[in-house]
Amino acid sequence: MNAIGIIPSDRFTYTYVLKACVVASLPKHKEIHAHIFRHGYHTHIHIMTTLIDVYARFGSVQNATCVFSQMPQKNMVSWSAMIACYAKNGKPLEAFDVFRDMMTHVLLPNSVTMVSVVQACAALGALEQGKLLHGYIVRNGLDSILPVLSALVTMYARCGALELGRRVFDQMGKRDVVAWNSMISSYGIHGFGGKAIETFREMIRHGVSPSPISFVSVLGACSHAGLVEEGKQLFDSMWKEHKIYPSVEHYACMVDLLGRANQLEEAAIIIQDMRIEPGPKVWGSLLGSCRIHCNVELAERASRRLFELEPTNAGNYVLLADIYAEAKMWDEVKQVRKLLEAKGLRKVPGCSMIEVKRKIYSLQSVDEINIQIEQIHALLLKLSTEMKQNGMYVPDTRIVLYDLEEEEKERILLGHSEKLAVAFGLINSSKGDPIRISKNLRLCEDCHSFTKLISKYTNGEILVRDINRFHHFTNGVCSCGDYW
Ligand SMILES: [Zn+2]
Ligand SMILES: [Zn+2]
């Protein structure tokens, strides 16, 4: 529809047109945005809030922020919209900041706001903040609202406190499918595949029909635990027993399940036989599995498709380059890097979050901002040297993407954000407290073995959540059983 052509100067129509235009393109919204300003409707809270929602849906956080800051007046709904925009678009720290700001304006958050804030907290992995929010929810009588409770279950699990999430779940008087799904996926990210399946069956026994998301959660759980046969049976039961057609998400889970278990050929056959277009999720799953098992041939096939489907997703190029690097095919690594540069794409920088004494810190691989950075580097160098000397640690330099001298590769590895976060945790946490970190990418092999050794060497407990799942390091062992 031609949105601009039909806009009259009526605030109800603006809201209507904006909502109807969610299916339209982003430039259209910008035109409407300009139109709204020209006609002086930018003082209407309702119209501006809808505009924030629309920008949020398109992931255009900057535009949403701009609208929000230009609003002369804000109500509860507009604050909530801004928090949700940040929370849903991978900016949890900003979501928290807006929440704090809102509280200083003496506005009492409602359940919708609380869900967004709890989700932001889950994304950060900030347990202490999460506990504070939980307390706030109870004090303000929001603890009987199902979406809030389900968000708490997920938040606790994503902050590494699975038992606390289970406690919230057990105390729920009524449970809808969202609540069950939260519990199932919580077990999944902690690697308890059997428990996830058990909970899935319990849900059905309680008369709650599984939703498509229930299957994504339970299949994901099977994948993390390597339960191939169970996963296949569940996948088969989707249509046969529950009349749910598998979607791209479900196929991606199956490809991941088989691929992780090194049944890559079977995973490729599943893709071949799909009745719907596989899309980037499915091919991405296959490429990820090729990375784990270093299968160059299949990786090339998957990435060819991915480069067509997502020409600007740097992650795909980096994965392929990783696979070539592991296979020591340096010329190919160079070619992929050239392709990446030619397209002007940049690798998403590794970033790790850690909460120390109720404050959240974000560390990046190239972090020079942190005041303790020298102390952190010195501690990492000391620990790695000591662990190398006593034969515990051998840096896994295969994963460095450049053909460099060994020493230089080791230096790059020591600068990975999760190692910085571990060192930051060792320096600043109270003795005996577990160190909790969340990372935006998959944990690399070297950081994984390094963190295992640190847990043994320092006799401490370290919990790391990466993009896939939880890793619980104690006494030199990780709960994932090196399968992630
Ligand atoms: Zn690493
Ligand atoms: Zn692990």
Automatic annotation (TrEMBL):
<dbReference type="InterPro" id="IPR002885">
    <property type="entry name" value="PPR_rpt"/>
</dbReference>
<dbReference type="Pfam" id="PF13041">
    <property type="entry name" value="PPR_2"/>
</dbReference>
<dbReference type="Pfam" id="PF14432">
    <property type="entry name" value="DYW_deaminase"/>
</dbReference>
<keyword id="KW-0809">Transit peptide</keyword>
<comment type="similarity">
    <text>Belongs to the PPR family. PCMP-H subfamily.</text>
</comment>
<dbReference type="InterPro" id="IPR046848">
    <property type="entry name" value="E_motif"/>
</dbReference>
<feature type="repeat" description="PPR">
    <location>
        <begin position="75"/>
        <end position="109"/>
    </location>
</feature>
<dbReference type="InterPro" id="IPR032867">
    <property type="entry name" value="DYW_dom"/>
</dbReference>
<dbReference type="GO" id="GO:0016071">
    <property type="term" value="P:mRNA metabolic process"/>
</dbReference>
<dbReference type="InterPro" id="IPR011990">
    <property type="entry name" value="TPR-like_helical_dom_sf"/>
</dbReference>
<keyword id="KW-0677">Repeat</keyword>
<dbReference type="GO" id="GO:0010467">
    <property type="term" value="P:gene expression"/>
</dbReference>
<feature type="domain" description="DYW">
    <location>
        <begin position="393"/>
        <end position="484"/>
    </location>
</feature>
<dbReference type="InterPro" id="IPR046960">
    <property type="entry name" value="PPR_At4g14850-like_plant"/>
</dbReference>
<dbReference type="Pfam" id="PF20431">
    <property type="entry name" value="E_motif"/>
</dbReference>
<feature type="repeat" description="PPR">
    <location>
        <begin position="176"/>
        <end position="210"/>
    </location>
</feature>
<protein>
    <recommendedName>
        <fullName>DYW domain-containing protein</fullName>
    </recommendedName>
</protein>
